[in-house]
Design a protein that fits this description.
single chain; about 130 residues; alpha+beta; Topoisomerase I, Chain A, domain 3; 2 domains; three-stranded antiparallel beta sheet; 4 helices
């Protein structure tokens, strides 16, 4: 009898986990579609947000915050021009992240590269500074 209860509990837990995984998968798919469509928005702030999210999705890098940036640890939203290099459609990120860990990551994405090239031309300390839009 006790084994039957344990098997039931385990089966129920797996059903809940499976449901959660499917739910997460659906939300990630929805987010990807939204980011893809926002890349073509006429609103510059929406396009900038889509670019940040896309970079995070492609690289698994974290958001970042101004307090960490002041301490020399960066996330995507706090990148400076020196942290990003664009060569054709290949983007290389090179920066110190959370806990002082050095990150160097390259990826290829034509849409990201095109937008980043324009952002890197601006006279701003931070690449994703929405005040310059």
């Amino acid at each position: 009898m006790e084994n039957e209860i344990k098997e039931y509990d385990i089966d129920k837990r797996w059903q809940l986990k499976r449901s959660s995984i499917y739910n997460l998968r659906d939300k990630i798919s929805k987010l990807k579609r939204k980011v893809r469509s926002d890349f073509y928005s006429s609103d510059d702030k929406i396009r900038l947000t889509a670019l940040v999210v896309r970079i995070m999705m492609l690289t698994s890098e974290r958001v970042g915050n101004s307090i960490s940036a002041k301490n020399g640890h960066f996330g995507v939203t706090e990148f400076k021009r020196k942290h990003i290099d664009v060569n054709n459609n290949t983007i290389t990120l090179n920066y110190v992240g959370k806990s002082g860990v050095l990150h160097e990551k390259s990826f290829t994405d034509e849409s990201c590269a095109t937008m980043l090239k324009d952002l890197l031309k601006r006279n701003s300390s931070f690449v994703f500074d929405a005040r310059w839009i």
